[in-house]
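Lecture 7 notes: from sequence to structure.
We start with the chain below.
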Amino acid sequence: MQTLADIYAAQPFWIWLAVAVTLLAVEAAFTTEWLLWPAAAAGVVALLTALGLDYGPAFEVAVFSIVTVVLTLFARRFVQKVNPAAEPDINARDVRFVGQQARVVEPFVNGQGRVFISGAEWQAEIAAGEPPVGAFVTVTAAEGSVLKVAAG
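Predicted structure tokens for the same chain:
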């Protein structure tokens, strides 16, 4: 621990640069977009310390926190303008199925059956009717891995 304190006392730039690179590496590994802005903020603090602005660790942590919040809020506003959430998440296949046609692959018995849509079979529930195998149904909702369907 003393070695880390000595490195920080000699040149805080390297500590903040290590924090920035570590956060950026974790962000690259998990692609959450949550650690990108703290990594950038740590980079800003590293740059400030490299320029000789040495007000101590409390000031640097405060600058890091403020810059993180500002960048995160700005990025959220920018991303919402550029990429509005009008469409469902591309990874939420079941939600994207709502309104699409599915083919019945297993007969419905007591409202339970299986349908084929987008290259996969899904468990399905139908409120009324029992369409035959090969008939098409419309997906009306998705609850977990079960698709709610309607005839037609």
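Points to note: The chain has a mean pLDDT of 86. Strands lie at 101-109, 112-117, 120-126, 136-143, 146-151.
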